[in-house]
Amino acid sequence: MGVVYLARHETMQCNVAIKMLRAQFVGDHTSVKRFNHEAVAARRLQHPNVISTYDHGFTSQGQPYIVM
């Protein structure tokens, strides 16, 4: 349901992964809600073997994303 990109966070000076909901699911309310729930749940996890979540939201075009 998502696609992940490697990006550079300029302020934090580190590489991050940006997960975005695929465009074909953006119009599906259930998929958007599930993606948002994933972002909130991932943010609550704190463990050395689990990736940290820094941010989540929507692009100006309405596409959900999670920055990890």
- Major sheet: 4 strands, antiparallel
Biggest sheet, spatial arrangement of strands: 1-2-4-3
**Shape by Cα distribution:** globular
Q: Report, as a whole number of angstroms, the end-to-end distance.
A: 17 Å
Q: What is the topology?
A:
Blueprint: E1 2-9, E2 14-21, H1 29-44, E3 55-58, E4 64-67
Antiparallel strand pairs: 1-2, 2-4, 3-4
Description:
Helix content is 24%, strand content 35%. Strands 1-2-4-3 form a four-stranded antiparallel β-sheet, covered by helices on one side. By secondary structure, it is α+β, with helices and mostly antiparallel strands. It contains one helix and four strands, in the order E-E-H-E-E. It has one helix at residues 29-44, and strands spanning 2-9, 14-21, 55-58, 64-67. The longest helix is centred in the middle third of the chain and has 16 residues, at 29-44.
In short, what is this structure?
It contains 1 helix and 4 strands, in the order ββαββ. The chain is α+β, with helices and mostly antiparallel strands and 68 residues long.
List keywords for this structure.
single chain; alpha+beta; globular
